[in-house]
Amino acid sequence: MPRKAKKENIKSNVNERHIKIYDKLLDNIEYLLEGFSKGITNAEYELTEVPKSAISTLDFLVASVVKIQKGHRIALGLDDDLPEEGSEPKITFIQGVDIKKV
Q1: Confidence band, pLDDT 50/70/90 cuts, at residue 98
Q2: What is the spatial distance between Cα 55 and Cα 20, in angstroms, rounded to a whole number?
Q3: C-alpha count within 13 angstroms, C-beta hemisphere, residue 25
Q4: pLDDT exceeds 80 at position 43
Q5: pLDDT > 70 fraction of the chain, expressed in percent and rounded
Q6: Helix 52-76 and helix 3-41, axial crossing angle in degrees, nearest 10
Q7: What is the dihedral sign for C-alpha 38, 39, 40, 44?
Q8: CA distances, 63 to each of 4, 5, 45, 56, 86 (Å)
Q9: Looking at residue 90, what is its pLDDT?
Q10: Where are the alpha helices (DSSP H) in 1-102?
């Protein structure tokens, strides 16, 4: 097998493995988010009284989904024509949160 074809085959195999891993990670994050969502929906506090730990957990889950999406897009070659920098937001906004209570 020519060297270039072998390199492309390795790259293809690695990307397939990454896609499988990203799919599993996304399934796990979805499961965690469902459980978290049920728990926070059934909680006995107003939206503006959501504890910092709940906000941090939600922020972590959202950040995980963003990273998984980025990994998927890289593995699938969907962003080959786009510049790498500037594709992720620098600031995260959470609507409905009273800043004084955070």
Answers
A1: low
A2: 29
A3: 18
A4: no
A5: 70
A6: 160
A7: positive
A8: 36, 36, 25, 10, 16
A9: 59
A10: 3-41, 52-76
As given in the structure block, the two tokens for residue 91 are 């600031």
Q: Name the CA radius of gyration of the chain, rounded.
A: 19
The two structure tokens encoding residue 22: 């990203």
Residue 84's pLDDT is what?
58
Taking CA atoms, 57 is separated from 6, 20, 39, 51, 93, in Å, by 43, 25, 12, 10, 14
Which H or E run contains 44?
none
Instruction: Identify the DSSP state of 24.
Output: H
Distance between CA atoms of 26 and 31, rounded to whole angstroms?
9
Given a contact cutoff of 8 angstroms between Cβ atoms, the answer to whether 68 and 21 are in contact is no
Q: How much is the pLDDT for 102?
A: 58
Q: How many Å apart are CA 90 and CA 102, to the nearest integer?
A: 19
pLDDT digits (tens, 9 = 90+) for 52-97: 787 788 888 888 888 888 888 888 888 777 665 555 655 665 666 6
